[in-house]
Write a structure and sequence with these properties.
The chain is 38% helix and 18% strand. The chain has 226 residues and is an alpha/beta fold. It has a single domain, classed as P-loop containing nucleotide triphosphate hydrolases (Rossmann fold, 3-Layer(aba) Sandwich), CATH 3.40.50.300.
Amino acid sequence: MDEIRLINIRESILADNQGLAEQIRADLSGKGIFMLNLMASPGAGKTSLIIETLRRMKNNYRFSVIEGDIESQVDSEKVAKEGVGAVQLRTGGACHLDAPMVKAGLDTVNLDIVDAVIIENIGNLVCPADFDLGENRKAMILSVPEGDDKVLKYPLMFSVCDALVINKIDYLESSNFSLETLETHLHRLNPGIRVFKTSCTTGEGLDEWCSWLGQEIERAALPDEG
């Protein structure tokens, strides 16, 4: 019997992706540009949070947004209406963005006039957690209607993120969502994660979120002393 050769495709794909992600991060760092990878389930409020963030911050910082979707360009059209440049990445079936896709998007942006890039990843709590896109920070949104048990069901996503936005907090009183239960599980898994409680309908918590994001943008703009 001929020898069977085993090739671990997943490890090879992730290794190739990581190399390009590190190149993207170095290139953006050299220009003092901050990049955020924003992840969530479909319907959690990614686009709404981005729009509200842009409205509060675009007078102080120059943004570009990379929108990832399997099909359509609905979200990028919403961003463009805010007077902010948007790039639409249509994956045609892929359930996540990867570094080559992001590099293709960045290549269309005049980075000399950008302070920060926000990536809206594909709506998915599984695959996007595996792929480094060259971002400075990873953030995810969990909406109250999704329930407080998602941290137990999708631990990798919650463990890799620097910030969690608990969105649609205005639904809290009419649900059985327990902030205490969620945060107990969350901080056991990821003690250093920042948590923001927001509503894009009422505006609750958005100033705190934008303040954190502004600090991260300012930090990225500092000269590299290393």
